[in-house]
Amino acid sequence: MHIAQVQHLKPLQDTKPFTVRQAKLLKFLTKSFGLIILCVSASTLLCSVPASGDTHITTLSPSKEQPRIVKLLNYFVQRHHYRKVKLNDDLATHIFDRYLESLDPNRSFLYATDVQKFSHLRSRLDDQLRRAQLASIFSLFNIYRSRVEERVAYALNLLANQFNFDIDERYQFDRRDAAWITSTVAMDKLWRQKVKNDYLSLKTSGKTSDEITKTLRDRYRQIQRRVHQFTNQDVLAIFANAYLTSVDPHSRYLSPRARDNFKIRMSLSLEGIGAVLRSDSDYTRVLRVVPGGAADIAGDLKAGDRIISVGQAEDEPMVDVIGWRLDDVVALIRGPKDTLVRLELIPTGEGPDANSKIIRITRDKIKLEEQAAKTSIIEIKQLEQSVRIGVIQIPTFYTDFEGRSRGDSDYRSTTRDTLKLLDELQSSNIDGLIIDLRGNGGGALTEAISLSGLFISAGPIIQIRDDRGRIRPRNDPDNGIAYNGPLAVLVDRESASASEIFAGAIQDYRRGLIIGEPTFGKGTVQNLIDLDRYSEDDSPVGHLKITTAQFFRIDGSSTQHRGIVPDIVLPTTVDSAIQGERGLDHALPWARITPAKFQYFADSRVVNELLPTQAAHEARLAIHPSLLFLRRTAALDRRIGKRKSVSLLESARRNEKQRLDAERQSLFADLPKTDPTDEQNTDASSLEVNDTIQTIILNETARILADALIGIKTADATTGIVSDERRSTGSAELPVTQ
After folding, report:
1. Is residue 384 packed enough to be buried (19+ CB in 10 Å), middle (13-18) or exposed (0-12)?
2. 228 burial class (0-12, 13-18, 19+ CB within 10 angstroms)?
3. Rounded to an integer, what distance in angstroms lies between the CA atom of residue 417 and that of residue 397?
4. Which one is catalytic: 196, 522, 545, 657?
5. Rounded distance, CA 511 to CA 494, Å?
6. Crossing angle for the helix pair 66-80 and 121-130, to the nearest 10 degrees
């Protein structure tokens, strides 16, 4: 046998010890061909040719300082975490499963025998953690890395062959809930289908055969390079976060490398373009675009988009990033201010065969001015009445801490800016006001409290319970009211933390209507601990972000897990039972404490009009063109999102792609011709679907508030009450307190 003919030897899935023949084969291959031989166990033999340019894969093992890091994690988790944690067999099982999920989330590398070999950790991992023993964790990682090497070699070999796309078979691309594969035959079948699917996806999007082969070869080799580049620091970070996220989803270990990029890692936002990303199987998916960032200003990147390749400047080649770790994608996209990055995307809501597009973003830093609150006015005509609705969009709860500490009289903050905008809108004789918090992931707690105070006279805004069970209310810092007219708050699934504090207070005081989607449900507080302070030498060990407290509304209910449930829920593309905190494993549960003492807002007529207002909204859902578009688009996205497999029959794939394209284009094309209410906005045909949806939701929120106002005016006319919905007591600039 000539060495050039040795492409790949698959693992021998055998539960028996090596036979004499197998042992002789091992000796012969090692001596004659210099192949790397990794004996995984007495029951598993793995042989592979060295990767191009590589002579071996270094076996990783714990460094001398890593047991100390584990001991520190144990100490802080058990002593200071908000959730009283017991390191026992139950937690050990969760940690083990989480570690496996972190390594192989789609169950496409490890075999059932690999998992079974380490199954004892389900009952022993807690004991090993107490003793800070990491050998088993590293052994499992080394096996995983070898399995990746094996699969990449197999995938590269397949590219030399021709695929038959006339065979009617299906590829299960989502294997997160599937059983671990038990045989080499089954693993080979899965990877043959995976490579075939990757090829077909590129083919149906218009790539040539040579382009496809080059793209996939580069993609698979990049997976190989990445797995070679893992260090023992990476392994510890993966395991430590499997440990911490088995306690709650917001506690994290930040390795020294991650600590250097702390601002990025805190929210997984990409410095330079302003986007929040997450890993989704082999893809890097855009979770949200940061308001005021470079991507937001450019306007082409949308939540749900999948980034498949990245290019630098105009003349650098695009680098395929499918299958990359999120950290590596971050490093590739991040760059100096005023430099260009190109992103190739599969647009949100599209299937794997959708035509990709390339967008260009000039990197920049998010400017406070571009995050600032903004206003607009929507005029609604209903029942022969015209109603002017003011809108204040608040992308984040910001404040200029440095300016405030210096005593600057003109420092910027959400509360101060909103106060000025309220004066402008009231001068424009608005009949009602919408505070738009969609996509607002939070920010400064003090700003959420002081902003709430603009709309009530006095009282508590939020309650905070720490890890010792102590409860502290936080009150409105000012007794004035800047606006006491009709109010609605618009939220969505990404409205979180400080946004939920504001919306919850408005709802609890019966101050206004909450409209939109159930919010994210993050009602916990994290503290950052510098572990370097506890290092026994000068070696950097990183940081620990740990959950130490929980928010509670003034009615005693938690914002955690459930979030804020709107008074009127608009059609959504995501099942509210799985979105946000509710979809995260090991999230803290909803809870209740004793309500704070407070009085309802004196004028709750908008809230009192909820039932007729909701009835009018539901009637529109059945007939209004914009809302029909919203519901049908949501149904289409849900249908696409539920798929876990795709056909590998080319004719079927092309037909399916054409059907989806035609269905979406039909929905979108009919919208501007049949929706006279939205004529005041930019022609819908020139907007992308996501922009159109956001406009529709805002306009419907304005209609809902207008319905309430018309109901109030009708009731006032019947009873003879004279009211001025635009009255305001006014307020001086509110002091911002810590």
Report:
1. exposed
2. middle
3. 11
4. 522
5. 22
6. 100
- Region of 469 (left: φ > 0; alpha: ψ -120 to 50; beta: rest) is left
Q: Which CATH superfamily is domain 372-719 in?
A: 2-enoyl-CoA Hydratase; Chain A, domain 1 (3.90.226.10)
- Asked about 576 being catalytic, the answer comes back as no
* 508 noted as active-site residue: yes
Give mean pLDDT, residues 115-138. Answer: 96
Segment 667-677, tens digit of pLDDT: 877 665 544 44
**Distance between CA atoms of 200 and 165, rounded to whole angstroms?**
8
Query: Which whole-number Å values give the CA distances from 716 to 606, 608, 728, in the listed order?
Result: 13, 13, 19
Q: What is the pLDDT of residue 389?
A: 96
Does the annotation count 188 as an active-site position? Answer: no
Q: Spell out the domain ranges in the chain.
A: 90-230, 252-362, 372-719
Distance CA 415, CA 397 (A): 8
Where residue 472 falls (left for φ over 0; alpha for ψ -120 to 50; beta otherwise) is beta
Distances (CA, A) of 442 to 454, 496, 592: 18, 6, 22
Of 255, 269, 497, 576, the active-site residue reads: 497
The pLDDT > 90 percentage for the chain reads 55
Region 370-380: what's the mean pLDDT? Answer: 85
* pTM (two decimals): 0.73
Task: Count the residues in the chain.
Answer: 738
Distance CA 580, CA 278 (A): 13
Options 198, 248, 476, 508, the catalytic residue? 508
Partnered with residue 530 across adjacent β-strands are 543
C-alpha dihedral sign at 495, 498, 501, 505 = negative
Q: What whole-number distance in Å separates Cα of residue 323 and Cα of residue 619?
A: 46
The residue with tokens 């973003």 is: 361
Tokens of residue 408, six digits = 């600057």
Q: What fold does the segment set 252-362 form as a domain?
A: Pdz3 Domain (2.30.42)
Task: State the CB neighbour count (10 A cutoff) for residue 635.
Answer: 13
Mean pLDDT within 634-646: 84
pLDDT tens profile 349-365: 776 667 889 999 998 87
Weakest-pLDDT range from 143-152, 227-236, 484-493: 227-236
Q: What are the structure tokens assigned to 406, written together?
A: 């210096």
Q: What is the tens place of the pLDDT at every residue in 295-307?
A: 888 888 988 899 9
Cα distance between residue 264 and residue 451, in whole Å: 27
